[in-house]
Input
Amino acid sequence: MKISLIAHDEKKELMIEFAISYQHILQKHQLFATGTTGKRISEATGLAVHRFQSGPIGGDQQIGAKIAENEMDLVIFFRDPLTAQPHEPDISALMRLCDVHQIPLVTNLAGAEIMIRALEAGFFAWRDVVKEDE
Output
């Protein structure tokens, strides 16, 4: 599966801890991330992470393009709901694309832990069917 990992500045440390905790699951998948988040995950875990640009300078849009092309299977996006983001329109567009293209999107640790356990258990076989239909 192709998984995007995104984290706002105030949530980056949480994303690193998540990646370390679930490294044994994440290592079996293709990982993508926005710039700094991807760099920090890779440094902390040794996992191979394809890095896009930083979110505010286009990384969110690059991931959105992969979603629109049906080249992404899951987005884990640790958002900071208490801090205004200058690139909020890009974030909204990314979330809209997930909804339009039926890409699972989780935006907090609780949802991410449920999703990663579902991934581990093999509950994402339906994504293969969706891809075959397109």
